[in-house]
Specification:
By secondary structure, the chain is an alpha/beta fold. The protein is built from four helices and seven strands, in the order H-E-E-H-E-E-E-E-H-E-H. A five-stranded mixed beta sheet has the order 1-2-5-4-3. Strands 6-7 form a two-stranded parallel ribbon.
Length: about 170
């Protein structure tokens, strides 16, 4: 029997009835909106029961002025099946408010999520609770703004100047 994505979605709905908030299929890609509090549990289930062993990417979307809550954290995960037609990819999303910009880390599920979560933290300021080494990865540690937020002012060079001046003073 071949495993298809609908079997996975149905199993998730059955095992997590109050956790799957929405399912969308668009252009052959399946996206599940998950309750933020259950993301790690759902990821463990997908990895252990359906062999989704590869985290492809983690990113975020800033919906400032478009819709509340302000952020979505997006997880792309992949399953390499025994047959080519059993390879599958699924997108998970959790909504994150600006006031509580935190979500549980999935590093305990996939160690490859380490730098992916750090990048989202660095660019959007979303904290991953339980991450083993959550610190900036692209920007200097003392850089205050988050460059991929919609309210980031690209014309304001003061934060960059302060970081540069501190670096010069340290030399």
């Amino acid at each position: 029997m071949s495993l298809d994505l609908q079997i996975v979605v149905d199993a998730l709905k059955a095992n997590f009835p109050d956790t799957i908030l929405d399912v969308k299929i668009f252009r052959g890609e399946t996206t599940l909106l998950i309750k933020k509090e259950k993301i790690t549990e759902v990821c463990h289930y997908l990895k252990n029961d359906f062999d989704f062993k590869f985290i492809v990417d983690i990113t975020a979307v800033d919906y400032l002025g478009v819709k509340p809550p302000r952020f979505e954290v997006v997880y792309y995960i992949h399953r390499f099946g025994p047959d080519f037609d059993e390879n599958m990819r699924i997108r998970l999303k959790v909504e994150v408010s600006e006031e509580e910009a935190k979500v549980a880390s999935v590093v305990p599920v996939w160690s490859g999520a380490d730098w992916l979560e750090r990048e989202v933290y660095d660019m959007f300021g979303i904290e991953f609770v339980g991450h083993p080494d959550l610190r900036r990865i692209l920007m200097p540690e003392d850089y205050e703004p988050f460059p991929l937020r919609k309210d980031f002012d690209v014309r304001d060079r003061e934060a960059s100047k302060r970081c540069f001046e501190r670096a010069l003073e340290e030399q």
